[in-house]
Amino acid sequence: MAVAALRPRALLWQALALGVVAGVIAVFSINASHHLAARHIATGFGFLSAAAPIPIGESLITYTPSVSTYGRALLIGVLNTLKVAIPGCLLATLLGTLIGIARLSPIALLARLAALYVELLRDLPLLLQLLFWYGVFQTLPAPRQAMRPLPGVFLSNRGLRVPDLVWQPGFTGVALALLGGIGLSFFLARRTALAPGLAVRLGAFLPVLLLPAATLALYRPAFRVDWPALHGFNFQGGASLSPEYAALLTGLVLYTTSYVAEIVRGGLAAVARGQWEAGAALGLPRGAVLRLVVLPQALRLIIPPLTSQYLNLVKNSSLAVAIGYQDLVSIADTTLNQTGQAIEGVALIMAVYLSISLTISLAMNFYNARLARQAG
Amino acid sequence: MRSSLRVRVFSAAVTLALALVLLDGLWHFFSWAIVHAIWSVPRGADGAPDTDLCRAAIGRGACWAVIGEKFRFILFGFYPHALQWRSAIVVALFVLLFALSLNPRFWRPALVAVWLAVLALVAVLMWGGVFGLEFVAADQWGGLPITLILATFGLALSFPLAILVALGRRASGLPVIRWIAVAYVELIRGVPLISLLFMASVMLPLFLPEGIDINKLLRAQLAFILFAGAYLAEVVRAGLQALPRGQQEAAAALGLSYWQATRLVVLPQALRHVIPMLVNTFIGFFKDTSLVLIIGIFDLMTTGRTATLEPRWQGFGNEVYLLLAAIYFAFCFAMARISRLLERRLNEPHLPIVEPA
Prior knowledge:
Radius of gyration of chain A: 26 Å
Number of strands of chain A: 7
CATH topology of chain B: MetI-like fold
Radius of gyration of chain B: 25 Å
Structural class of chain A: mainly alpha
Strand order of the largest sheet of chain A: 1-2-7
Distance between the termini of chain B: 51 Å
Number of helices of chain A: 14
Distance between the termini of chain A: 31 Å
Oligomer: heterodimer
Order of helices and strands of chain B: HHHHHHHHHHHHHH
Number of strands of chain B: 0
CATH superfamily of chain B: MetI-like
Largest sheet of chain A: 3 strands, antiparallel
Structural class of chain B: mainly alpha
CATH architecture of the domain at 70-143 and 242-375 in chain A: Orthogonal Bundle
């Protein structure tokens, strides 16, 4: 191969390709620097530390318009993108699995409805669905006539208000204990999956309850709940989800679900019937066959396309800008309009999405390689 | 298999519950869309429609009057009213072109000529300025033709690029070309389409020399070609990978050069194989054109959205969105169905082997 690369003709073609790419970049940058100088627009990323007069509606970290910097505003954008992308991936996986299984259900009407869902949602542009959901969340009643599906929960055109648990230092320990418990149970469940007694199999799941309970007893943090209440024309207290966030999350999840459902259905259908029957012949209960025989084989088919759906969801979350949710693209767009630094703004957007895409790809490749090793 | 009584009772109960929910939903929709719907509104003294009737029915019945009033605008945007027959012919031409291209009987080299002819005809009809047709500037175009133009021209013009990139990715003796191809595909596929559209609308003017001013629609079209090229390259690559190595080697043994082998042996087989995948990718492009709403180009989505923003007709968004949904669905569903049929046909064991070009 290295020898072929040095052949005169191969060398010529490669030099030509490299020359064209370098030439285009050179012409573009000369023109750009000429334009920017003529319009007195600064270059470089110095603007990141300048004060940003962008009003930001929802943020996970503190922010003051005209005091905080553009860098901080863009960081909020990244966090807001993740705030919709991570729950979006989880919910779409959950809902997609349910609908994918429903498509294979022996109950004809259920299978038909699931197929209808997939067909309908896949063939409509996501943007149209987002505008629709945004319209739905906007036509909810005003705060004074808010719907109250549960005590302390208010659904109005200002979004969703729910009671909020005031965070105590001890809660972090409980959360860590819960994660540890889930990990331990996962480990134990794999070990005891074939154990004869139901009690032993259920016992494997005890750490999920026991570890957090023990931590709770150790720290005894105070539970204080912040209840939302109507004050004048709006609510105060509690945690809130804006209508923009709710519309974006709903639209993204329902749209991506239709793709995930097809992937799950395809994966499950590809595992031969004989595998179910062989598992049953070994005397395994149905649940164990699904968990130990069918799912591991189906997952190998499901994971690669599922990864690209996660990537699509992250990229699609950039449609937030159309309904006014302040994700990275929306804040970067405002930034580049205010500073005039279009090249830096677009480059930042691309760099962030590329890193997110790369991270997801790597994580899923790692998981996939592990699965392949286990199966092989 | 075994269906015990318990299982059968359970399925019957689930079916019944689902049927009840479904009927209830259908009844509500029927009552909103048909029974209590307002089909037209009277005109006031100034000739403008009086929407009070619709306002009174909000929440109870649909206001289809908004469609009657706005559908020309939604379909054709700001294209001069008297010349909209040209836009209508363009839409019909595209539908014909799709129908023709999806029929395996027409999969021959002449199809490329048909595509070029239709695309040229579309340009003539939209722009005018020749054959006695009145000139219409591109910033007056709008509606469904824009959606179809962006998707179809995007597909057609990015196709040669995609083939080159896909071949470049597999060029074993040319590492530099392979890196360039990989970098292009991974970069474009790793970022959202919006960022490419922003690039076209705000960055591209900075990159071009003084005095050259490209129309906004054309810039968006460029972004689309760049975008489509990366995704199509992956489709073509899949086709190339599926082809046994022996084909290339057999062609080489016959004394064909690399380009002759590629043109006469490899591509005809590889492309035929990926046509269903190509159709699915095109459906994606068709839906993705709606994103130009964000940079302010008047495609079908933008005209629909604009129609809902007019103060007199505000509050009837769902009716307009339903119309848009019906149009997008009609195109996507038809293409998806045909793609599935083609897939089944191509997977048939006794596929007649077509003669190379």
